[in-house]
Amino acid sequence: MQNKKQVHRLKIIWQLLKVTGFTTFLASFFSFIFLAAGLLLWLEPDFTSYGNSLWYCFVTATTVGYGDLLVTTTLGRLISILLAFYGILFLGSMSGLIVSYYTEVSTQYALIVENDKKKINSQ
């Protein structure tokens, strides 16, 4: 029974991902992070490895901003602004998707409970 519920919940999340187009947004978000990391590695003199550049992009996109790495070029700063905006859009969209998921799960659960009550009352 538990496994059946998990499969049903996975179907719900997959349906939400397809309907909202979030899978495409997710792919574009991570593609942009990896592309921006490469560009910043090439542009910024203080970024000595792709790992450092990727770390900076992740920290900027999640709006954490530790400050251990800084961009100094104008183009690097523009890329950082885009990363921050894209990260805010991504995190906001993901929050909406999570709320939609739990709303759908609770609706499904309420329907199951209601159907069970009807079966008990009809007997």
TrEMBL record:
Residues 30-103 form the Potassium channel domain. The chain crosses the membrane at residues 21-41, 78-102. It is found in: Membrane. Keywords: Ion channel, Ion transport, Membrane, Transmembrane, Transmembrane helix, Transport. It is a multi-pass membrane protein. GO terms for biological process: monoatomic ion transmembrane transport. This is Voltage-gated potassium channel.
